[in-house]
Amino acid sequence: MRRHFNVACAALALWGIAGSATAQSPAPAKTVLVVGDSLSAEYGLRRGSGWVALLEQRLVEQKRPWRVVNASISGDTTSGGRSRLPALLNQHKPAVVVIELGGNDALRGLPLEMTEQNLRAMAQAARAAGARVLVVGMQVPPNYGAAYTQRFADTFAQVARTEKAELVPFLLKGVADAADPLALFQNDRIHPNEQAQPTLLANVWPNLQKLLK
Predict the structure, then answer these.
(1) Is-catalytic flag, 177?
(2) Any catalytic annotation for residue 154?
(3) Which of 38, 72, 76, 105 does the annotation list as catalytic?
(4) 104 and 116 in contact (C-beta within 8 Å)?
(5) Catalytic residue among 4, 25, 180, 188
(6) Model-level pTM?
(7) How far apart are CA 205 and CA 184, in angstroms?
(8) Could you tell me the domains of the chain?
(9) What is the tens place of the pLDDT at every residue in 127-183?
(10) Which helix (H) or strand (E) holds 42?
């Protein structure tokens, strides 16, 4: 009888240890999903040097329980992102979605109304899936005309406001408007170089950090 009692006690003790370990195990990592174009896809850059990779490094260094999924594709438009998003939401179940699209819409001369509709639809789909949303704004050079330039910049702010999303007004702030901007761009004068990537992250981080709950 004593032997059976000792075995039972040992079993309970082991169960208690296992239960304690389970209770103290860290929470599973939440996901930040970045849906963007070449500015987020490390176009022309050394792998791991883009702002999205730097974001992941920062989260690891700060021991935050987050992982980053970079679903950015060079050349993508808001239409492409809108069509890809449902599958990405289903696959990754993100808690935060970063939408960095729209620049290629302007380069292709696509209607601003369509860009706004696509961004709005993406924000709505992300929110319906339970994710918080960060809209990353872009601006176009003044040679597009003052009226178009202002309307384009306002599109991102309007979407963020109506869809209750956080907003980065201009991803390339401090890069495209730097004293010597060519020093921060690759030879194509379109894509920021590796030196500029920490600035891009600095532009995104304050607003993204609000969503990392």
Answers:
(1) no
(2) no
(3) 38
(4) no
(5) 188
(6) 0.87
(7) 19
(8) 28-209 (3.40.50.1110)
(9) 999 999 999 999 998 888 899 999 999 999 999 999 999 999 999 999 999 999 899
(10) none
